[in-house]
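Retro notes, structure queue

What went well: the backlog is down to a handful. What didn't: a couple of records were mislabeled last round, so from now on we paste the full input next to the output in the thread. Example, using TetR/AcrR family transcriptional regulator from Streptomyces benahoarensis:
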Amino acid sequence: MPTTPSPHAARRSERSRRAIFDASLALVGEVGYPRLTIEGIASRAGVGKQTIYRWWPSKAAVLLDAFTEGVESYGEGLPDTGDLAADLKYVLRATCDEFNDPAFQAPYRALAAAGAADEELSRAFVARLLEPGFAVYEARLRAARDAGEIAPDADPRIVTEMLLSPFSQRWLMRTGELTHAYTDTLVDLVLRAVRPHD
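Corresponding output:
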């Protein structure tokens, strides 16, 4: 007996998986996470719910896989033009645009909220989405520190948190708009705090 699926079966499985991902992302935007169900995803995707349960243990697991597959990788990291402020502003402006996109907002907010009550989901969310993002900021800041653009005692991790935590808090709690002016100001204030001391 063959131990791997036939090419036809593999294509069918990939089509089903893609349909499930598309359905979960669409539905969470339409009905919200609390009303999202495996049954609803299965119906929208045109598959049996047993197919979903064969691959994922919960709706959160489905949504996490669907969302993280669609998020672009950080590739080679943040740009390094030699101007740290310009590079950080460029990336945070792009991030601002992404977080203001309704197609991005719904699943991200759903996963953040679900993760607050589900430690396993939270750990997976952090490992697969947040940590890779933090890592590229830390690498760019480490290079800036080596080049003398920020103080030698500036911890790249803490500087990254100084940049991204207020951004995330404002967006998640809706305490204000996310705009390019806001992200530019954030970069300016953080870099003012960590520039080399006289």
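Agreed that this is the format going forward. Reviewer comment attached to the example: The domain at 73-194 is CATH 1.10.357.10 (Tetracycline Repressor; domain 2).
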